[in-house]
Specification:
Elements (H helix, E strand, L loop, with lengths): L2 H25 L1 H4 L3 H12 L2 H11 L3 H23 L8 H20 L4 H21 L8 H26 L60 E6 L5 E4 H5 L5 E8 L10 E10 H8 L7 E6 L4 E5 L9 E6 L2 E2 L9 E3 L12 E7 L21 E10 L2 E9 L9 E7 L7 E2 L1 E2 L9 E8 L5 E10 L21 E6 L1
Parallel strand pairs: 1-10
Antiparallel strand pairs: 1-2, 3-4, 4-7, 5-6, 5-10, 7-8, 7-9, 11-12, 12-16, 13-14, 13-17, 15-16, 17-18
Keywords: Membrane, Transmembrane, Transmembrane helix
InterPro entries: Ig_E-set (IPR014756), MoCF_OxRdtse_dimer (IPR005066), OxRdtase_Mopterin-bd_dom (IPR000572), OxRdtase_Mopterin-bd_sf (IPR036374)
Protein name: Molybdopterin-dependent oxidoreductase
Length: 496
Amino acid sequence: MNTASTRFERAATGIVVAATWIAASFVVSPLVGGFAVVTVAEAVIVRSPGWLSSSAIGLLGFAAQPALVAGVVAAVLAAAAIAEIVRPRAPDVLTPAYAVAVAVATAWLFLATGGGLSIGVAVAFVVAVGAPYLAAQYLTRPPAPPNRRRFLRRIGGVVAAGAVSAAGLRALFSRFESEGGDRAGEPLSRSISPPSGDPAFDFEGMPAAVTPPRNHYTIDISVDDPDIDPESWSLGIDGAVEEPYELGYEELRGHDDSVEQTTTLICISNPVGGDLIGTAHWTGVPLSSLVKAAEPAEGAVDLVTHAADGYSEAIPLELVEREDVLIAYGMGEQALPRSHGFPARLLVPGRYGMKMTKWITRIEVAEAEHEAYWEQRDWNERAIANTMSYVRAATREGDRVTVGGVAFGGLETGVEEIAGVEVSVDGGETWNEGELEAQLGPHAWRRWRYAFDAPEGSEFEVVVRAIEADGTVQTDEEADTLPDGATGWHRETVQV
């Protein structure tokens, strides 16, 4: 058999064996507590510099994490193909070393994913290491005589046998998966009254006044959202306090101080005009009530929120005095969806989403300043959302053209910050006053619109800028997302 043919078969063998390991790792993930490939992807996220994370989110948005997982899979397949090509055959002294390396890597990943030894992890290890070993033994058995067609039939056999086995084992192992997240998204027992927007602002292309949970953006360091059992979950309030205590899930949902609040969230990685922004109607308990009950010690400076996925974030203790900072447990008329932090998350109006820890398990009152995850990557610690306004829609009825969008600004108090918007349809040469929708709440975006007459088929460069309550005009200075969030006027060329 010629050299090119040999290289092809070696590369194909490496890819199929690696794919078998990936498939086996996915099949046993219920036993381990997660998918090993996702563990690698999350390790990449944790170790990535801030500029890289921002670039990936800005470029790919919601697809950033799936793209990273796909990249990890591709890297594993490529590495396996290269290793198989360069692996010596005579004498075959490195084969045991390769097998040991795969076994050690698998054990380390499973322990990192699941957090400890158990019978389930042991079974998972045997399946994840044994399946690719058997595939390798079958594929590397010399055919007599060497034949490309027979080799391809062997690959087909491995794929077919693997698919059937994987389906059966996955169905079996899935019985061991946690079912705690089944209550995520369930209807809340209390009556909820989300605000309704002005129908005049609901023309084609405009976002809803309140974003449906399924359409609200999510950005996390976790690729696979934690699946938390609310029956065993508790929220601890401790640290520099006189009376540390814990709350169960039902105790949090039944708290006497529960309130509703319509609040806009925006990601600090959102570029000007981007989609990483949404407005939801939340239900929760003021953080001030929960912390006050623990009696913080004098000299405490920070409040650190810890999440089930290892994430932590800090806000100054004086910020906790605001009654609009919530530990939220509801979104819309339902319990938080898993992707939005079930069972509970922090909500800090007017700050970027990086401050709002999801899947909270602990609230720590700290006597020293806490350097949080994104602060370590050179993002702004305060993370106050910049004043912004975006173009979102353009529509026509006869000679009448209407353009519209949203405006929002960081809020330090409950006072309305956006007083108006100005709209240009000639690229910023002239400006006109836009119409604002009535405020849904002091922490919610304002939808805007501007109508004018123009011949059919006209093209316009629409630019918008927000006006703050004190008369300050939104800055036109363009800045990237890192470290303080993007700034600049949003402009869109529209033809109607």
